[in-house]
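Students often ask why inverse folding is considered easier than folding. One informal answer: many sequences map to the same fold, so there is more than one right answer. In these notes we will look at a single instance of the problem. The structure comes first.
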């Protein structure tokens, strides 16, 4: 199966900690030259010296804050897989190391952590407000389960593999939990949720708010409504009169749109059939989604993030790594990283100010903040 690497479950359990008060580290970096046909990375200079690295242009211009997350000495990141923002502005990082759910303030200062039970298995993390409280939905790949928790780490729901799920011919989708490897969840406004079996059999499973099974659709294959690693899933509400599920069909290099009942609505593919999906077009290996107003943010495992408009036209592609050997490469050494050039964007989110946080699939973890530059 095509699977992100996972850390081992070794090392001691670490207790939750409070805020670590540390000074702001200097942003390290080096200028990049021409990327593709146009300059994507710019360092401006003035009499005070070198200014921070800038990526993008126009309404999508950002200052790169490299190594944004500052951890205390008792916690080390594993692969950083997902990122979310809470209603009060905290940033949550989900990673495969111990204490796998880490909270930070917007400046990268550590607040607290929990989640030792997900160490080595952390992957998808999605957040939803239900009533007056917020909850996390965690897709734990190696545990073959999905968990719902509150923001303090209390497990409220444990969802096992879907025993009831059937293929179109009536045969069971699974003989046991081993072939079910959930990757992300979608959380529509009606309280239901959907789970992608991205690293398993490629199905998408629909549940009500109590975790009761409703239906299954998708599955591995090359038909328009079939998948090749349905890695991420999200409820796209940019057209509120018609909310749809959007699936990051990663190895088909496309997005699939389904109704909430699991019927294929349409596909979003690379612009030209002759384009090499690894290097051109809208998508290389799309991973997941974040929505802000009329725009959609898509982290792409092959070294960039893409911003789409309401009609899924490309508005910007940021951090496009000119070194193709580093794209989707979990083995890139830390000292080979270049600020502003992504290797393996796996999760990304906007915050309320329009800043972007990018979590990369790297064994030591990498979280970059793209601070929005006001026009």
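Output (designed amino acids):
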């Amino acid at each position: 199966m095509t699977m992100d690497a996972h850390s081992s479950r070794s090392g001691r359990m670490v207790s939750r900690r409070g805020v670590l008060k540390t000074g702001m580290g200097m942003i390290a970096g080096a200028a990049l030259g021409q990327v593709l046909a146009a300059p994507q990375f710019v360092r401006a200079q003035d009499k005070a010296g070198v200014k921070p690295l800038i990526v993008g242009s126009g309404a999508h211009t950002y200052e790169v804050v490299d190594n944004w997350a500052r951890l205390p000495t008792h916690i080390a990141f594993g692969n950083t897989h997902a990122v979310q923002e809470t209603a009060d502005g905290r940033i949550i990082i989900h990673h495969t190391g111990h204490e796998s759910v880490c909270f930070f303030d917007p400046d990268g200062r550590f607040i607290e952590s929990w989640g030792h039970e997900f160490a080595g298995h952390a992957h998808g993390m999605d957040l939803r407000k239900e009533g007056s409280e917020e909850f996390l939905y965690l897709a734990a790949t190696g545990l073959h389960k999905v968990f719902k928790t509150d923001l303090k780490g209390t497990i409220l729901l444990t969802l096992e593999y879907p025993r009831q799920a059937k293929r179109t011919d009536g045969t069971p989708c699974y003989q046991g939990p081993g072939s079910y490897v959930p990757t992300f969840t979608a959380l529509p406004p009606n309280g239901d949720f959907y789970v992608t079996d991205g690293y398993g059999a490629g199905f998408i499973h629909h549940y009500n708010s109590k975790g009761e099974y409703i239906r299954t659709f998708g599955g591995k294959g090359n038909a328009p409504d079939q998948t090749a690693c349905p890695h991420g899933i999200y409820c796209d509400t940019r057209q509120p009169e018609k909310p749809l599920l959007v699936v990051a069909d990663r190895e088909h290099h496309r997005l699939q749109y389904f109704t909430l009942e699991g019927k294929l609505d349409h596909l979003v593919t690379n612009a030209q059939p002759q384009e090499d999906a690894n290097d051109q077009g809208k998508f290389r290996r799309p991973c997941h989604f974040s929505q802000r107003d009329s725009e959609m943010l898509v982290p792409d495992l092959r070294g960039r993030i893409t911003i789409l408009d309401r009609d899924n036209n490309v508005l910007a592609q940021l951090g496009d790594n000119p070194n193709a050997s580093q794209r989707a490469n979990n083995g890139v050494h830390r000292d080979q990283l270049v600020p502003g050039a992504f290797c393996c964007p796996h999760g990304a989110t906007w915050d309320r100010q329009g800043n972007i946080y990018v979590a990369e699939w790297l064994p030591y973890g990498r979280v970059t903040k793209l601070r929005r530059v006001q026009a």
